[in-house]
Amino acid sequence: MDAMDKMWLSLYAIGFMVLASVLITFARAKTKGFIRLILSTVAVFILICSFFLGLISIV
Questions:
Q1: Neighbours of 48 (CB within 10 A)
Q2: What is the domain extent for residue 26?
Q3: Which of 8, 15, 43, 54 maximizes the CB count within 10 A of its CB?
Q4: CB of 27 within 8 A of CB of 43?
């Protein structure tokens, strides 16, 4: 893997972290009940994916 691929992976990871942050903020501020649970679960899944992308870009 060359440096450009690592750069793109890290940018995707940052983008996914921003997306997860916006999603969890929206879920807590605007929704209730089951929808809130679903959105929070999706946000956590996106955050875990971004963690692994960031880890791959470092190694």
A1: 12
A2: 3-58
A3: 43
A4: yes
